[in-house]
Amino acid sequence: MDEMDAAMALVEKWRSQSRKGFLDLCALSLLASREESYGLDIMETLSRAGLEVSEGTLYPLLARMTREGSLASSWSTPETGHPRKYYRLSPTGQLVLAAMREEFERNAAALRRIEGGTR
Amino acid sequence: MDEMDAAMALVEKWRSQSRKGFLDLCALSLLASREESYGLDIMETLSRAGLEVSEGTLYPLLARMTREGSLASSWSTPETGHPRKYYRLSPTGQLVLAAMREEFERNAAALRRIEGGTR
DNA sequence: CCAAATATCTTGCTATGCAATACATAATAT
DNA sequence: ATATTATGTATTGCATAGCAAGATATTTGG
Lengths: 119, 119
Description:
The structure is a homodimer. In chain A, a hairpin with a 7-residue loop joins strand 2 (71-76) and strand 3 (84-89). Chain A has a 3-stranded antiparallel beta sheet with strand order 1-3-2. In chain A, helix 2 crosses helix 5. The model of chain A has no long low-confidence stretch (mean pLDDT 94). The first copy, chain A, contains 5 helices and 3 strands, in the order H-H-E-H-H-E-E-H. Chain A is mainly alpha-helical. The first copy, chain A, is globular and about 60 Å long. The interface between A and B is large, with 53 and 53 residues.
């Protein structure tokens, strides 16, 4: 299966491209249903939902969204345990999330129309 | 509405990121339901399905997928009308499309779980 | 005290979307 | 004839995100 291998290599490359932006939507969605959370916990939760995300992807993502104003962050240094940076959705983040969800749905609907063979 | 403007600017930036890869899936899906088509026709069809794609996006995309082997292309120079480059799905392209659809569905399902508030 | 686990951050590379621009040919109007 | 518009494809340059690899720091267990 030579053709199969070629196809799989292409899909692998495509895979990481197709996650651009999508991971933002996932992170915001998670924080919308959770009050607050920290990096590794977010990674584990996404993993349990079937989405493997590496640290080199998630931490820059959280830093960027905080810088942009969609997230707010604060350190927690408990008496026992590691210091953690907790993130939560800001008001701007809620607006952003709503718009992303709309756009995602619009795109999914467009894809269904395309698959259906619109002329 | 200052916060609204900030949010909309962010979403605008996110928008183009979130289309990365997604447009490959759309183009392949379209060609899977159509035998063959050419650049401007693909643009118009996507537009009718609710997906606006510019030339600077679509032509490089088609060139790349042809180079990679997911598409096959051939010029048509009819007696009347403009020369057009027609594209169609290759066998590799069909494998790639199937894998992309699977991955897209898997991601959509993960997002639904995340929205549902998985722990 | 050393190793493993927990937790976050950074660097460098690769790849795509897109505005802008360019180029060429066919049909239409003047 | 010739200028203009419409049709059709291609390229360049920039901005941006994903990700492997590696760095750093603290806590807990042997």
